[in-house]
Amino acid sequence: MTIPLADDVFRAPGVELFDFPPLWEGAPYWLTKPVVLAVGGALVVCALAWAAFARPTLVPRGMQNAGELVYLFVRDQVARPFLGKDAERWMPLLLSLFCLILLWNFIGVVPGLQFPVNAHIAFPIVFALVAYVIKIYLGIRHQGLAGYFKNLMFPPGLPKLLALTLYAPLELLYTFVTAPFTHAVRLFANMFAGHLLLAFFSAAGFWLLHEQPSLVGAPVGVLSVAVAVAMTAFEMFIQFLQAFLFTLLTAMYIGASLHPEH
Predict the structure, then answer these.
(1) Nearest to residue 36, comparing CAs of 24, 47, 25?
(2) Phi and psi at residue 115, in whole multiples of 5°?
(3) CA-to-CA distance for 6 and 75, rounded, in angstroms?
(4) pLDDT in tens, 194-227
């Protein structure tokens, strides 16, 4: 997070916070801070998974105990409600997705790093496209091409004319455009907005208390710092919630393709 400074005028942080040049002059254009944080976060998730499950014991302790708690949470709160008997089969994907998104989000409140990877739209788009491709593939594989579109466009009990003229176009638009778009943007927008708010209150407190201290501005500066601290705690809750919701929707899409009758 970059704190904007000025001699006598406060400049609120803006979208420039999300514009990262290459790490050094002459580096590839794609080699930026978010990419390094993304790769580092993925390696951390792999290391934690190895530490938790490489040598499992009958009585879990330490990292294994923590890993099993996360596994049980994803299995019972995300996978089983939508996948039923297929939950265990899809747990590697869902657990990896949840842990990686959560860690990438939490990087936004780590001092010195302070940028949630998913505040860069490219990363949520990749996650959403993976979920989307799996959803369409499973739907066609388990229902057949004709059966998939029939179940999608003509639900039982709905008059054919109404389905053809109103329901089918809306459902096609939702399935192939709206659903993957909102799946990605929901995660991105929350991380983007949260990072911007934290940057604003942190910058305001720094400017009022350090750059331009005054008797009038000091109370506002203290308030800004207090709000930044409170917002950090709230942002961590939002970061967890968005990881949970993204994984939950992925499980719901997979379950709908595997079991269209539900």
Answers:
(1) 24
(2) -150, 115
(3) 50
(4) 999 999 999 999 888 888 888 888 898 999 999 9
